[in-house]
Amino acid sequence: MGRAPVLKARMPSPIRGGKRVIVVVRPLLVTDGQIRLRSDLSAIDYARYLMDEGAPEGERKGHGGMTPELFTSDELMPPPQHFMERWEVSPARARGVTARTAWCVNLLRGDLPCEPHVYSAAVSFYPQDAERIDMQRFGKRLMSEVREDLGGAPLLSVMTVHRNTDHPHLHWIMRGVLGIEPGNELSGMVLKMPGVYRMKGIRSRAISLFERMLEDRAAS
Question: Which helix (H) or strand (E) element contains residue 25?
Fold first, then answer.
């Protein structure tokens, strides 16, 4: 099998002095349909963390101590309830995780055909800045704008908001294979982002979006 082509990316204009949004994107390699983030952290462990499974009420990572909610930017990926029903009886479920976490595990399984990796990202803010925007709305818009930067690639991606550190942040998972969208020539391709876009472009896009959302708020 040949190497997957790198997608063309539209690079946003660099933002000078922009340190208000911190973005880290890393590819997680897939081997035999399974991901290991570290030697001691499996995909199921990571899903438990994202879904905050086992934490008592009031100590959860989501907004206001609520269970973190997974969300997408559009309808390319079925809504969480679809996966919750589909994975109700799954290997992950049998290992004692909830249906919500089983759905998250499905995102991390790396089981789509020819999927060599899954992208994992974190987008974090200063506390005072996080209070000035709707973080979920920001995440949805960022997913849509990154899709456009990548030529309209039908991303299979999902985010969740965590507020369990001094810097509120978004966790972002992108499948390594693009979705199927009728008429889109990128459908089903391996998602391989240019390194410079992954390291700098998404951050510039996030900072630009943050500034625009502040301007919209000031104008309203």
Answer: strand 21-31
Q: Determine the Cα–Cα distance for residues 6 and 98; give it in Å rounded to an integer.
A: 36
The string of pLDDT tens digits covering residues 36-71 is 565 555 666 777 777 776 555 555 555 555 667 777
What is the model's pLDDT at position 125?
A: 94
Residue 80 lies in a domain: yes
Q: Is 4 helix (H, G, I), strand (E, B) or coil?
A: coil
* pTM score of the predicted model: 0.80
DSSP code of 28? E
Q: How far apart are CA 141 and CA 27, in angstroms?
A: 22
* 213 Cβ contact list (under 8 Å, min separation 6): 133, 137, 138, 141
Range of the domain at 86: 21-181+189-219
Q: Is residue 2 part of a domain?
A: no
